[in-house]
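Lab notebook, page 48
Experiment: co-folding of the full assembly
Goal: obtain a model of how the components sit together before planning crosslinking
Operator: M.T.
Materials (sequences as entered):
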Amino acid sequence: MKIAVEGLHKAFESRIRLGIMSALLVNDTLDFNSLKELLDITDGNLASHIKALEKEEFIGIEKSFVGKKPNTRYYITKEGRNAFNEHLKALENIIKSGRLS
Amino acid sequence: MKEEKEYIKDLSDIREMMERSSRFLSLSGLAGVLSGIYAIAGAFIAYSVFGFNPDSIDYIPSGADNHDTDVVNVILVAISILVLALATVVFLSGRNASKRGEKLWNNSSRRLLANMSVPLATGGILIIIFIFKNLVGLVAPVSLIFYGLALFGAGRLTLSEVRYLGITQIILGVAGFIFIPYSLVIWVLGFGFVNIVYGIYMHYKYEK
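Observation: model returned without errors.
Model output:
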């Protein structure tokens, strides 16, 4: 795992990936289009960020069919949840220590 | 390393995304106000035109041989109000959603609807049963209670004030059971005035 300064995770440096993780943290699953709408980005852009998070095994994929249409839904994995929570804690710590100094 | 400002922005973005992705925030307060007005108008029509005043549990509209038609008319008025109110909520919330650059029919509105449909359908079925069993006096308080339960559950999935709106309706519904002779007045208070007051509050808080 790549850990950047002060416990911040490299994978969450991009704001879009932060957005994906935040949305998946509070929703059991979300499909591609819901994520696209929430983040307001292009298909290609979203797909590449999803791939990156998938590679870290922070999010998982659930494939099913709605009628005849394939439906891909994403969910946050246990590792993803832990890593993201740690990232959040690190963010809070940085801000707190910044205020003190 | 990023600036501290950027980390603060990160955190506020995260918080905002959690809110936006899990709650339907385009619910229209104005629609609440209008629905309240429809409810008052409907109750007024039912009372003054069709002589509807359910003051006992086994209430049967008095002073008319054709009391069945009166109850049918009141049911028609009630269904019209319901359809009109739903249409208003959908239309005005849809307008709010497009102003915010969102779709009305999205993940959070679907979840909201699915959650509310269970208590609302249960209440609706009970109301139909009560009407068939000639327990018309129970219809008004039961509708308040199940509307309140639906709103209470919805508080997590839309604007959080909806939770308190739900509690208010539940309390009024229980009061309606205790004071059956005043159940229509209490119904007007709940579906009418309380909806209007909350609607105005939410309109000024979120739609201005």
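Interpretation: Chain A has one domain: 5-100.
Next step: discuss with group before ordering constructs.
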